[in-house]
């Protein structure tokens, strides 16, 4: 496998005219593959999507991945045993202590869509002490960016992101 220097966010910062939709397409195909094998990635975000010089994206960092056993229904952790992750991308139920599930990845993917189109960490304006209450209990989500700030973020993407960030899992 060739060395890939940039994650998605770095790649887009270096190439501001490149449309993130291509990176998100590749990442979604990788996520679809994982989910078809009942593997939960557990840490989807721009930093965990590698992008080569041609704009092709690959998911990486499977340290928090979980495999759902079809036979027993139990979840087995792959890699680290601590329940950790990237708070700003975590599904609300994970903030409350639930185990990651496939819908948790979909929520994180919606946050990643926001991140790659805005070049901002989602919900970065929420203080650490208030994060769980605002995101889990009050269901605060990132606001829709203004069209003039993010002209490529078309309404279908906004609708998709809204669905990914809805109540769940």
Automatic annotation (TrEMBL):
Pfam families, alphabetized: Pkinase (PF00069)
GO molecular function: ATP binding; protein kinase activity
Gene Ontology BP annotations: signal transduction
InterPro entries the record matches: Kinase-like_dom_sf, Prot_kinase_dom, Ser/Thr_kinase_AS, Ser_Thr_protein_kinase
Organism this protein belongs to: Mycena rosella
The protein's name: Kinase-like domain-containing protein
PANTHER family given in the database record: SERINE-THREONINE PROTEIN KINASE (PTHR23257)
Keywords, sorted A to Z: Kinase, Transferase
Ranges of residues in domain Protein kinase: 1-169
GO cellular component: cytoplasm
């Amino acid at each position: 496998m060739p060395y890939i220097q940039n994650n998605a966010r770095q790649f887009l910062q270096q190439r501001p005219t490149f449309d993130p939709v291509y990176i998100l397409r590749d990442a979604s195909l990788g996520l679809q593959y994982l989910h078809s094998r009942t593997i939960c990635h557990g840490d989807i975000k721009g930093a965990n999507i590698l992008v080569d010089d041609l704009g092709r994206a690959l998911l990486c960092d499977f340290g928090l991945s979980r495999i759902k056993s079809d036979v027993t229904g139990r979840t087995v952790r792959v890699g680290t045993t601590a329940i950790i992750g990237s708070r700003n991308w975590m599904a609300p139920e994970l903030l409350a202590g639930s185990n990651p599930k496939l819908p948790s990845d979909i929520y994180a993917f919606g946050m990643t869509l926001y991140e790659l189109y805005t070049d901002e960490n989602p919900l970065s304006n929420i203080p650490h002490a208030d994060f769980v209450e605002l995101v889990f209990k009050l269901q605060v989500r990132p606001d829709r960016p203004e069209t003039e700030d993010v002209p490529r973020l078309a309404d279908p993407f906004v609708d998709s992101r809204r669905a990914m960030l809805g109540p769940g899992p």
